[in-house]
Amino acid sequence: MSDQEVVELYYDWPTWARPNQMVPPGEDWTIWLILAGRGWGKTRCGGEFVRFHVERKLASRVALIAEDAGDARDVMIEGESGLLAISHPSNRPNWVPSKRRLEWPNGAIATIYSDNDPETLRGPQHDLFWVDELAKFRNAKEMWSNLMFGLRLGQRPRGVVTTTPKPIPIVRELLENPRVFVTSGTTHENFGNLAPTFRDEIIAQYEGTRLGRQELYAEVIDPEDYGIVKREWFKLWDSDRPFPDFMYIVQSYDCAYTEKTINDPTACSVWGVFRPSEDSPLCVMLIDCWEEFLAYPELRPRVINEYKESVYGEPGKKTDLVLVEEKASGISILQDLRYAGVPCRGYNPGRADKVQRLHIVANIIACGRVYIPESVVHRGQPRDWAEKLVSQICSFPEAERDDLTDTTTQVLRLLKDMDFLRIDPAEVAPDYYDDERPRRVNPYAQ
Fold first, then answer.
1. Mean pLDDT, the chain, integer
2. Three-state DSSP class for 366?
3. What whole-number distance in Å separates Cα of residue 347 and Cα of residue 349?
4. What distance in Å separates the CA atoms of residue 51 and residue 41, rounded to the nearest whole number?
5. pLDDT surpasses 70 at 446
6. Which in 21, 120, 169, 333 has the greatest CB count within 10 A?
7. Distance CA 11, CA 6 (A)
8. Other CB atoms closer than 10 Å to residue 118's CB: what's the count?
């Protein structure tokens, strides 16, 4: 075989590719979603997807999107399986770092974008895209929306997503989209091209673990499997029983920064303290919850009216306290509530992040002290309006939103500090003057 034939064979992807690594046939799909384990060959597939369309003049304006510009350059362009490495010398694109783009001899252009700045996708038009490691994006929703609005060139614009799966909302949405062609694969499929140390050490260490199921076998694991709080920890209040008499009721608010923030609604949950039976400790029950895209000042009358007009349980009890996190519009709401004569209190989590806040109160839920109303239709399940709160808490920190989770952690922390939900009994110091204790005597007092 001549040197030229060796070169031609080296760059002939169909010769080396496995069947499930080739561009899917047919025209009934728009997005090729590759969910595969580490080392499966996702990056090479993404690059070959771009090369396939550009060299056949099926695409001329390509978007290359990674978590940040460095990843796009180091992996998608200059990496061992990047576009520069896999392209035939006669048709290799020119990398222009100052313009963040590749330029092919036939005029096609690929521009890199970053998830860190999804607004840069607002405006440009494309007929092809490649998104790498979507599951680790922090602004995936906003990035994806801008990308889809710009995918409007040509007769059949398309794209490929290459990622190790994580159960984030955008991945779950793609799996349910009928226009998405899904390819899955495991690390084991590409063992022949992986270093022996990787096979011997990494595989042996993570085989059979939850992380191994995700990273090696590309399973999209239920986000509740990652949760700090487990669903079975919540207790259901029988739908046949009337609500109990509540001794203390708190409305808890997590206020939005702005009403334009699509992933940041205002959330409210209402909780009532009660005693399930005469000999049981005090517990708390979810009475109501909602999420709406409200920000100050529209939120102000809603909060005040909720306090003044809401009556809970039988024979009916009004709210005792309105709890608002001291951030953003919550600071203004607290001022307005005080002027309106509403009993309110600000919540300041201090240096604790959201994960730490949930850990602080998780034992209250684990000990069966938190009740959720049972569904009348689906017995054994929370009511529909309560399900979103339970699902959000149990999926945290992988949940799409955490606003209802925040309202829950802050109210449970408050009730714990107020001794309504004490789990461990307070230690009682022994009486210093206990009659049975030997008394010390001053020997010099004789």
1. 88
2. helix
3. 6
4. 15
5. no
6. 333
7. 9
8. 21
Same domain, 194 and 244: no
Given the structure tokens 């490929």, which residue do they identify? 160
| 298, 193: one domain | no
| Residue 350 pLDDT exceeds 80 | yes
SS3 category, 175: helix
Q: Are 49 and 160 in contact (CB under 8 A)?
A: yes
Contact 251, 324 (CB under 8 A): no
Helix/strand/coil for 385: helix
Strand partners, 291: 267
* Domains of the chain: total: 2
Dist CA 59 CA 151 (whole Å): 11
Closest CA to 267 of 335, 329, 317: 329
Residue 346, pLDDT score: 94
SS3 (DSSP) at 160: strand
Both tokens of residue 196?
């022996």
Residues 212 and 255 in one domain: no
The tokens for 35 are 């969910």
Question: Are residues 201 and 66 part of one domain?
Answer: yes
Range of the domain at 340: 231-417
Could you read off the pLDDT of 177-206 as tens digits, one per residue? 999 999 998 888 887 778 887 777 777 788
Which residue from 238, 321, 229 is spatially nearest to 273, judged by alpha carbons?
321
Query: Are residues 156 and 243 part of one domain?
Result: no
pTM: 0.68
pLDDT > 90: percent of the chain: 59
244 and 202 housed in the same domain = no
Which phi and psi angles does 303 have, rounded to 5°? Answer: -65, -45
Length reported for the chain: 446
